[in-house]
Design a protein that fits this description.
The chain is an alpha/beta fold and 636 residues long. Among the domains are: 137 residues, Alpha-Beta Horseshoe (Leucine-rich repeat, LRR (right-handed beta-alpha superhelix)); 116 residues, Ribonuclease Inhibitor (Leucine-rich repeat, LRR (right-handed beta-alpha superhelix)), CATH 3.80.10.10; 109 residues, no CATH class. It has 11 helices and 27 strands. The strands form 4 sheets. The chain has a 21-stranded mixed sheet, with no helix packed on it. It has a two-stranded parallel sheet with strand order 5-7. It has a two-stranded parallel sheet with strand order 10-12. Helix 4 links the parallel strand 19 and strand 20. Helix 1 packs antiparallel against helix 8. InterPro entries: Leu-rich_rpt, Leu-rich_rpt_typical-subtyp, LRR_dom_sf. Keywords: Leucine-rich repeat, Membrane, Repeat, Signal, Transmembrane, Transmembrane helix. This is IGFALS. It holds the Pfam family LRR_8.
């Protein structure tokens, strides 16, 4: 008779096998339901989430509804997103939301809620997490319905401008015990002033968004109580200046958005404007705000700043000593759409920290190679929207950049040696969308194994043999469309099978020596296909080995053999790291000797420690796993 301990262990083992060997389809399965009266809504499972999450989307957006539709025939064991955006609903009654399994309700857009019943969302209080409403006014009486949703995490209150509210009154949120709320959005109300105690009831929020209002002064007193605030959005307001210390006691604020304001004049942002954020602010966005110069005196104090976006301003000048000299952690910089003169002083202090640089729409006619050569960590460059027409030879020689974005320009010719590899093990990603390229011969004329991906969307590329030579090169991922071959090939995808078959009949690829990296890539592609065939066996044997290992430690069958098996599993888990290296041959003898030593140890354990027949099965499993695993050197 089996002991309860053994039955418990066996049930856990079966559960582990079922959960690890079950295969879920990656295809997005969409199930349809009949969910509302008169068919005014569409119910689908699997639109925003995979089908196995059990979330149904009830989509009633833009149906000209004047009231919340009655839901019928929907399963009562699912979670629901109820989207009622862009309708004409003005009243919410107590019985409009009777189902308790709503996780999101959206009543924003063109709706204009004059009255929301106090108990309108009581039935949904258990699971409701996101609520969006277009309300006519914010005050204590209009927001009494928040009593019924104490677990809500995201609240968005919108206004469509029909009735402006200039002041956010005192204690508009207190008393509701909204301790679970993490994100609050108040947009489009035309607020000019916020009372100091307006946010007392939501002091635990992490994200506060106040866009599309008329704020001209940062509500410092109201923000002081939000000690956990990490993201603040003050975009699309009416700020003209930032005075000293406007963000007092916000010691966790890591992202600040001041885009689309009216900062004008050299002293628009005070030198001490960000002093309280010097050790926490990581992302600062000031785009489309009419800045006339880089606020270097205020930026120099931000020691933790890693992302800075100053695009689409009127910046023409900067401090002669270098505007970013104190930002030694700055990794991403966007100065697009300004009339700056690129020079070494502009980027002084960023040579060893900058990873991504965007200089779009700056009327550049060539790549500033002399300036970018000193950036040892720069891997991403976006030059879209400039005035380049031709990429000469050695276009990127001496640069460390691996990802070039060269969209929306006038490039019609690229020299054969324009692109070179920045490092022996690196490949380039080049985006040439929306240019005037007619041929891809520059790819085949470049040294093999230079490109990883080339994007040629919205270019007049010809469907010719030069294209065929690149398409058949499996080491390059080519994306885009081509034209040619009469009416059959107009804006056809480069990877289209019919195009490839047609070009194969008329084009011949000369026999040439295959580059070493291409030969290795082909081996690894074949290896991956083999891996897909035996992955099921590998998983089953590994699962069985783990079960045996747990059995030995729990029941103390053989402490010596369990130690050997632990060593084997640790070695197996370390092999994938070695599979990424280019040359695997020098390490083959090492791993082979380790495998043989484990075999020997298992044999000694079998012969000297115990006579249990299960150990013979264990040695067979280890041997089968070594032979079946595509990660092992024996199967490489």
């Amino acid at each position: 008779m089996e002991s309860p301990r053994f039955s418990h262990f066996l049930s856990l083992t079966l559960l582990y096998i079922l959960t690890n060997c079950a295969v879920f389809s990656e295809r997005l399965t969409i199930l349809k339901y009949k969910c509302a009266e008169r068919g005014v809504c569409e119910c689908s499972e699997g639109i925003y989430d995979p089908f196995y999450t059990g979330i149904i989307t009830i989509d009633c957006r833009g149906r000209n509804l004047t009231k919340v539709p009655v839901l019928i025939g929907i399963p009562n064991f699912k979670y629901y997103r109820f989207l009622l955006r862009d309708n004409r609903i003005t009243f919410i009654n107590n019985r409009d939301f009777r189902y308790s399994l709503f996780i999101e309700i959206d009543l924003g857009g063109s709706n204009f809620l004059i009255q929301v019943a106090d108990k309108a969302f009581v039935a949904t209080s258990r699971f409701l997490r996101q609520l969006t409403l277009n309300v006519s006014q914010m005050n204590v009486y209009k927001l009494r319905f928040l009593h019924g949703v104490p677990k809500i995490q995201e609240l968005t209150l919108e206004s469509n401008g029909k009735r402006e509210q200039t002041t956010l009154p005192s204690r508009v949120f207190p008393g509701y015990k909204l301790k679970a709320m993490r994100k609050l959005t108040l947009t489009g109300f035309g607020l000019t002033k916020i009372a100091w105690d307006a946010f007392l009831g939501v002091s635990n929020i992490h994200i506060l968004r106040l866009p599309y209002n008329n704020l001209s002064v940062v509500p410092t007193a109201a923000l002081k109580g939000l000690r956990k605030l990490s993201e603040l959005d003050l975009s699309h307001n009416n700020f003209r200046t930032l005075v000293k210390y406007p963000f007092e006691q916000l010691y966790k604020l890591s992202k600040l958005d001041l885009s689309h304001n009216l900062f004008d004049g050299p002293e628009a942002i005070a030198p001490d404007a960000f002093s309280d954020l010097k050790n926490c602010l990581k992302t600062l966005i000031i785009t489309n705000s009419s800045l006339s110069e880089i606020p270097s005196s205020s930026l120099r104090n931000l020691k933790a700043l890693s992302h800075l976006n100053l695009s689409d301003n009127r910046i023409q000048d900067f401090n002669n000593s270098g505007p970013f000299r104190g930002n030694y952690k700055l990794r991403e910089l966007d100065i697009s759409g300004n009339s700056l003169d690129l020079s070494e002083k502009l980027f002084s202090g960023l040579n060893n920290s900058l990873h991504r640089l965007s200089i779009r729409r700056m009327k550049l006619k060539s790549l500033p190679k002399d300036l970018l050569t000193n950036f040892t960590q720069l891997h991403y460059l976006d030059m879209s929207g400039n005035m380049l027409t031709h990429l000469p030879a050695d276009f990127n020689r001496g640069l460390h950049i691996r990802h070039f974005i060269l969209r929306d320009m006038y490039i019609n010719e690229i020299s054969g040696g324009a692109f070179v590899k920045p490092a022996p093990a690196a490949k380039l990603l080049v985006d040439l969308s929306s240019n005037r390229m007619t041929s891809v011969s520059f790819v085949s004329d470049t040294r093999p194994c230079t490109f990883l991906e080339v994007v040629l969307s919205n270019n007049p590329v010809q469907c010719d043999c030069a294209l065929y030579r690149v398409v058949t090169d499996d080491t390059i991922h080519l994306r885009g469309q081509c034209n040619g071959g009469g009416k059959h090939f107009r804006h056809v995808s480069i990877t289209d099978h019919a195009l490839t078959d047609t070009l194969r009949r008329v084009c011949t690829i000369p026999d040439a020596n295959v580059a070493p990296c291409r030969r290795l890539d082909a081996q690894w592609r074949a290896h991956k296909q083999f891996s897909g065939v035996v992955s099921v066996w590998e998983k089953l044997t590994l699962t069985t080995l783990l079960i045996c290992w747990a059995w030995m430690f729990i029941f103390a069958e053989s402490i010596y053999l369990s130690i050997y098996l632990s060593i084997y599993l640790s070695i197996y888990l370390s092999i994938p790291v070695c599979s990424l290296s280019i040359n695997l041959m020098p390490i083959f003898p090492i791993y082979l000797s380790i495998y043989l030593s484990i075999y020997l140890s298992i044999y000694l354990s079998i012969s000297g420690v115990t006579e249990n027949h299960s150990i013979f099965s264990l040695s067979f499993l280890v041997g089968f796993h070594i032979l079946a695993s595509p990660r092992s050197p024996l199967s490489a």
